[in-house]
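I'd like us to work through together how a protein chain folds, taking it slowly. To get us started, please write out a protein record for me. Go ahead whenever you are ready, and we will take it from there:
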Amino acid sequence: MLTADVARMAVQAATAASAGLLQEANALRGMSMASMQLAGPALAGILIVTVGPGYALAIDAASFGVSALYLARLHLPPHVSLPAPAAPLPLRVRAASLRHPRPCPARRPHRTVTG
C-alpha cells in the first residue's frame, strides 16, 4: 500500500531527525515527495481510464482518510516550547521608524562606473 510506505518514511525521517541525522532525513523526505509527484498522476490516469473518474475521486478521498488514520497513530516526541515573544514596540517607536525608514538596497540609485 502506497500510503503505508509514505507514513513509514515519515516516521523514519522523524526518528532520524531526532537522532541528529537531519540531512539524511531531509533527503529521504525529498525523495519520497518526488516519487509521489511522479507516481501520483500516473496512478490517477490509470484509475480514470480503468474505473472511471467518479471512482477515481472516491479512491482519492479514501486515500486521504487512510493518511489521516496513519497520521493520528504517529507518536511524536514531546513538543519543545518556544520562548515568549518579545513585547511589542511602543507606538512612538514604530511611528518614528515609518518617518525615517532605512534605505532599501533595491531603491538606491544605480551608479554606472565608466572607465
In short: Helices lie at 2-18, 22-51, 53-73, 91-99. The longest helix spans residues 22-51.
